[in-house]
């Protein structure tokens, strides 16, 4: 929740309104452009040039797992060290560039990677006065360092796939004192004036007219002291085999990145900010920053992970500059005009160059390589994948109980009620307003007895109030972020005057985490979920509605170095507290707005303060696809839009879309009309009910996808290019998507539609897969666009031939009550008459699955036999669920009989009842336990 039409104490609201205004859309004046950001202005280059950096071959040092070589800026003679290493398993390089002898230690990002990089054998293959060749293992992955001008080319299986500094845009401002700068300016005052950022762009040999923001900077009324002076860096990457670039979330823009390297156009910005009613179709910074970017073409997919937590801008040099990329199915992108490969230039304010090069070669290889570095999202409790009901704010206990009861009255399943900030005592976290919520523990217990859960919001700002225990503890223990003078930093947020927990301090993280323990925060239970919001951090009276860059964190860290990590560090603390609250065996549920690389290890993410507009519905797919390929699969958007009042058609279509996204929550601003489904006309309510019920039927499929994400690191929600990498028409499509490789989802995203155009992609051989309509089982076999008729209930969803999808068709009020219910399997045959799928089962809430208490089943259909067996033979879980129904589509002929066999007896257990309709066959009540190995043989 961000600042919009807010209700605050009168003395505070006057200042706040002057700052932000009660506008109907984002005020762009509150946020910097590249020209207003001194380091971006200094270091940005729009044209290729000859780099002034060179490697020094005589300084090459070989170690078992990495090499080092010195770099020099030829004009200033300042030296840097390049470290280059292969990662274990091949397919990835890691390189770092830092000053050889910096005046002080430059910050290196901590806590984003799941572990320290694991290096493999790194060997110098050859050296010369012009080139140094480095290979990994057997030599399939190679890096070639060009001495002068400095460049690094990365090869996969002999093919050049990534080049660093091929455009010569490398910059690295070395640390120095302002006195040195003043002396240099006096010595150079008779030299001809250079353009700002010319050559090294690092002010190591500054021009007389150095950028006025290099040593200190103002934005509106805010001053940044910049005690270390200018320390920016930049490096460009070219993708010779690519046609399209994607990644670097979070932006409300197309999935395929647009060309930005044009004067008057800003680069994409990565700087976590509280932006309410954000604009669509631009690269403005939003709530999270994940600095990973991929280049994709028909022959390879590669990636660059720029591990830097400071403010970062990324310029895109697109292969299609005139038309950019479009997602319209009517105007599929033409790539024939490509004259040069796409490239990206990363520009960061501080830190070091810390880069992982992901060599793919397939899209799924590159996605897996990235999550190998930053971690995979852990399997959530099943209820977290079900439907969530939220509003700022449900008024009181009676309101919560009434809404819960109304879902039952209208036969609409719902798993979680959410409470926004108004549940607290005067905006003090870890407390309750006992006038509105006099019996919170009883309220939570009542929800639990219905099979439901409660989630509450807890933000990082702490009310400065001498009567508030947590503020006093943070003050006494020195756990707050400090200002540049060393005093506790004070800003404005929901409580008015507030200070901010310094999550970079281990003591602060531990004490904050302790507050979640039941002995401290007693009016809760171990099942309550937590919502971390406003954690960019949001500071209403700060520059760009956030914290001053010259604030100080534990260990003397400047906020400028770690800004994009702040919310991530809060997640670490929250996760630790919830894990200990559940005695280490209950999977925590956390939702966050701010995020960074690796945040998927702790929390789900939603796309922030969107609007009740069709464009924002469309953006929810684009944004979640970009997050998914950046490791954050557990993504969703506020159903209906946070701001505004959606009409019935938009609201229903948004539910239909949200039902097929990983995180499924309806949420609304405090000044919107109440919008529980039954408050809409009956026809709208029934469509919403149908969408939610479809979600619950597919929960076994979702649960299996989430489990497999933890095992493989592959996204749950995927762009079409993930599985159709050679189909150039699919590269930029972002109005439909895949779930795993089983379902193709094409929601209705525009008003008054009677037909939805769906693109069915081509395989490498030019043919298409078979796709079966999940409602009618109609088979689609052609490649290309097909107009699918839609009515108010219709969501075009197709199951790929060759897959098996599990469902549970007995929908109950909450997912927790469906645990032992029976399964239905939908078997969709491919052109070979085969299909395969998986099913994952456990207790749906604990970590016992990591101790072998689960079932992971392989289900196959081939040669007229459907069979199920364990994938992990040593794992087991005593499920009470059983097989109720099998639907087989795509059979070339109708079977005359079906016989069930189980391994327990080794013999037939009896004939099964069949229902036949065209090429669809339904097997009724096999009634075999999902715990058993079994097979069904069909006679033809």
From TrEMBL:
Q: One Pfam family, short name please?
A: Glyco_hydro_31_2nd
Q: Where is the Glycoside hydrolase family 31 N-terminal domain?
A: 91-315
Source organism of the structure: Anopheles atroparvus
Concerning PROSITE patterns, the annotation shows: GLYCOSYL_HYDROL_F31_1 (PS00129)
Q: Which residues form the Glycoside hydrolase family 31 TIM barrel domain?
A: 378-705
Please report the name of this protein according to its UniProt entry.
Glucosidase II subunit alpha
CDD domains according to UniProt: GH31_GANC_GANAB_alpha, GH31_N
Q: Mention one GO biological process in which this protein takes part, according to its record.
A: N-glycan processing
> Where does this protein reside within or beyond the cell?
Endoplasmic reticulum
Q: Where is the composition biased (Low complexity)?
A: 180-212
**Signal peptide segment:** 1-25
For this UniProt entry, what's an example GO CC term?
Answer: endoplasmic reticulum
**Can you tell me where the transmembrane regions are?**
none
Compositionally biased tracts (Basic and acidic residues): 217-227
